[in-house]
Amino acid sequence: MQIPYFVLLLNLITFFVSPLLAQESKLSNKDSKTLKETFRYIESLEPTRLKISKQTYSRYSNFESFFHFNYSGKKLSRWIQSRIKNYSKGSTGDFIAYFHEGEVVLGKSFFQLTKLDRALILLHEARHADGKEYSHVPCPDNFRFLNARDLNIVPSGKKGCDATLDGGYGLTASFLFELGSYGFLSQSETAHRYNSEISRILASSD
């Protein structure tokens, strides 16, 4: 029995236009909408013209060395989605979200954050999908930096720091620098947020 041509064509079109977004069956419709809005936000952050000097950009930008492609919001969105297989909402303890066996568990507070902070958390968690070498290490007991998204979360003595430059915090810092470089964030906000992420990296840059 031959399958009509228009049915084959319809199936082919459906295959290519289906969203890459991972399964969200464990999320409510409202939470699923928030998640999709976050990815649309990331995809909207396409670079145009640098707002800082090329010399400064060359000195601090490491996005391409980390991701192996030039900065692009659309490409970054697909990079994240290719690594996270499922999402759910539940208790996350002292964290806003965590990655476990291909799934990201999102805490209640995740959905109360700004689009930018949600994007940073998804990017951070996606890095954990790349292997145990990107697992966190304990922050020093005398770690004096605050959690930029929740002051009630105390990082000191907890597994909330990185031992590698290209871990979750390194990636979010590189993303923030691109946003500041292309004018999506003010220079003061870029510096504040970038320094906050970098403070969690214990590895030496030498």
Task: Write a structural description.
This protein has 206 residues and is α/β, with parallel strands linked by helices. The protein has one domain. It contains eight helices and six strands. The strands form two sheets. The chain has a four-stranded mixed β-sheet, covered by helices on one side. It has a two-stranded antiparallel ribbon with strand order 5-6. Strand 3 and strand 4 form a beta hairpin. Helix 2 packs across helix 5 and helix 2 packs across helix 6. It starts with a helix and ends in an 8-residue tail after the last helix. The relative contact order is 0.13.
Question: Quick gist of this model?
Answer:
It is built from eight helices and six strands.
**3D shape:** globular
Q: Please outline the major beta sheet.
A: 4 strands, mixed
Mean pLDDT figure: 87
- SSE string, helix = H, strand = E? HEHHHHEEEHEEHH
The total strand number stands at 6
Q: How many helical stretches?
A: 8
**Helical residue percent?**
40-55%
Structural class: alpha/beta
How would you describe the oligomerization state of the chains in this entry? single chain
- Provide the number of structural domains: 1
What radius of gyration results from the CA coordinates? 19 Å
Strand content of the residues, in percent? 5-15%
**First-residue to last-residue Cα separation:** 67 Å
Trace the largest sheet across and list its strands: 1-2-4-3
Low-confidence stretches: 1-20
Topology of this structure?
Elements: H1 5-17, E1 23-26, H2 29-44, H3 54-60, H4 63-67, H5 73-81, E2 86-89, E3 97-100, E4 103-106, H6 115-127, E5 137-138, E6 159-161, H7 168-181, H8 187-198
Parallel strand pairs: 1-2, 2-4
Antiparallel strand pairs: 3-4, 5-6
